[in-house]
Automatic annotation (TrEMBL):
Superkingdom of origin organism: Eukaryota
InterPro entries, per the entry: GTP-bd, P-loop_NTPase
Gene3D superfamilies: P-loop containing nucleotide triphosphate hydrolases (3.40.50.300)
Keyword terms: Coiled coil, Membrane, Transmembrane, Transmembrane helix
Coiled-coil features, chain-numbered ranges: 206-259
Molecular-function annotations in GO: GTP binding
Any single Pfam family the record assigns to this protein: MMR_HSR1
Residue ranges constituting the G domain according to the UniProt record: 1-59
Protein's UniProt name: G domain-containing protein
Transmembrane regions listed in the UniProt entry: 261-285
């Protein structure tokens, strides 16, 4: 898992010898869940799972969460658990944005605190920064509470992936001996039979969407105030432009509200609504009955 353009698909291809689609920019290339070719490692058969990021450019965060949650839960129903999770993060990012923190928060809520010791944060894009700058950023990420320190304190690890086969394989080898664990989202949807909106990750996403809607409504109020002032000043052109901005903000609020409304469904209804069950049943179950990373 990880942000769009952080090297998830490239990492999987390098380790597994697969040919998953790889983008050449920040536009999403992985918009669906993809599985690597199975490969043998240390006497085990391993399959890696490539997921879209929560900042996907072709799907909403609501759709991405439902897709990942449904896939992982159906996999859990079939008796599969993950040996580990790799979260990729670009060391080349000048700063950790609010979007990056939001993505990682959703990832953490999806996994749950009890599975963090099976998580490796793989820093990527080391060739795009000087060694000194990369090390400084790595230290900041590992020691600041706003970034990765809280999960590292709970057993997650951070490792460098320098785009070499050796570093990629080293990360996977660290995960392979792990005791396979059930993710929080799997327990919530399968064992507790919660609606996805009631899950920890779903509640976090709903809260975030609500905050986005609140900010947009405040923006609309300011735009309307400015429009009224423009009308009083007989500035018709500015008033029209502000009215257009008001309509755009209203449309964005409607989109956010639709995302909130779409964040609903138990595992049964989610499976009935999409083709994820077919992917799990036809791809994982017959072909890969051992270990997944």
């Amino acid at each position: 898992m990880g942000a769009t353009g952080s090297g998830k698909s490239t990492f999987i291809n390098m380790v597994s010898g697969s040919h998953l689609p790889v983008g050449d920019g920040l536009r999403s290339c992985t918009s669906d869940i993809e599985l690597s070719e199975p490969f043998a490692l240390a006497g085990r058969t391993v399959v890696m799972i490539d997921t879209p990021g929560f900042d996907d450019t072709t799907r909403s965060d609501t759709d991405v969460l439902k897709m990942i949650a449904t896939f992982l839960s159906r996999m859990y129903q079939d008796g599969h658990k993950l040996s580990g999770i790799v979260y990729t993060h670009r060391i080349s990012d000048f700063r950790v944005t609010g979007m990056s923190r939001r993505n990682f928060t959703l990832f953490r809520k999806l996994c749950g605190e009890d599975t963090l010791q099976n998580v490796i944060i793989a820093t990527t894009m080391w060739s795009e920064v000087s060694a000194a700058r990369g090390i400084a950023r790595e230290d900041e990420l590992a020691t600041e509470n706003l970034f990765f320190r809280p999960v590292l304190d709970k057993g997650a690890r951070m490792m460098r992936h320098d785009n070499s086969y050796a570093s990629a394989m080293g990360i996977v080898m660290q995960l392979l001996p792990n005791r396979r664990r059930t993710l929080l989202i799997q327990r919530e949807l399968v064992d507790m039979e919660l609606d996805i909106a009631q899950t920890t990750a779903g509640a976090e996403l709903s809260r975030d969407l609500g905050e986005q809607a609140r900010e947009k409504r405040e923006e609309m109020e300011k735009i309307e105030q400015e429009r009224q002032e423009a009308l009083l000043a007989a500035d018709i052109q500015s008033a029209q432009e502000l009215e257009d901005e008001h309509h755009e903000a209203a449309a964005k609020i409607k989109t956010i509200e639709n995302k909130q409304m779409g964040l609903a469904g138990t595992l049964v209804t989610l499976l009935a609504a999409g083709a994820v069950s077919l992917l799990v049943g036809q791809v994982i179950a017959p072909r890969h009955r051992r270990d997944s990373s």
